Amino acid sequence: MTDPPGDLEKLIELMARLPGLGPRSARRAVLHMVKKRSLLMAPLAEAMQSACETVRECLTCGNIDTGDKCTICADPARATGEICVVENVADLWAMERSHAFRGRYHVLGGTLSALDAVGPEDLRIPLLVKRVADEGISEVILALNATVDGQTTAHYIADALERHGVSISLLAQGVPIGGELDYLDEGTITAALHARKSL
Question: Contacts for 47-51 with beta carbons within 8 Å, 24 or more apart?
């Protein structure tokens, strides 16, 4: 089998580093882009260059945008006194797609993990505590994944904020809308049972 030319091989190697893409998927994607060079490859290269130059992390919450302060933090209507704490920007975007939360966010940049030697100082937990004190926050909603590390992080944050007198809540866990019990794992069913409420 003939190897691709040097420039294409480098592009394939870089694409293969993306989440969800292995070497084969990257090769297929690159071949498709080359075939659609003017419609896809050139605009993609231009968009990537522009994003590389303009996109940065919000200094307040950790979201990504084109300024030092993201549009959510800059929106005065979002100053509701509520902060939703998420693990990463993808989780923030998922919350925004729901249109259910109209406050502000705080992106931790990961979760505490003894196994990976990730401590509070490696995350944006100290900045969260400072924001709660400085911004007059009344409620912190912990929208962290229902994993061991996510729950450990939630408990750590709750302890760190205890002296600030702020209300702390967790997202409910359990049966998703449209979910069937037969397809759910035992942990989800247990969480749903414990979070049950009266009709």
Answer: none
Q: Give the pTM.
A: 0.83
Interval 145-156: pLDDT, tens = 888 899 999 999
* Burial of 178 (C-beta count, 10 Å sphere; 0-12/13-18/19+): exposed
8: nearest Cα among 39, 37, 44, 34: 34
Class of domain 6-54: mainly alpha
Q: Where are the domains of the chain?
A: 6-54, 64-170
User: Residue type at 187?
Assistant: G
CATH code for residues 64-170: 3.40.1360.10
Q: What do you get for the CA distance between the two ends of the chain, in Å?
A: 65
* Both tokens assigned to 68: 């030092």
Give CA–CA dist 91/89, Å, rounded: 5
State the pairing for strand pair 82-86/104-107: parallel
The per-residue pLDDT for range 173-190, each reduced to its tens digit, is 777 777 776 877 787 888
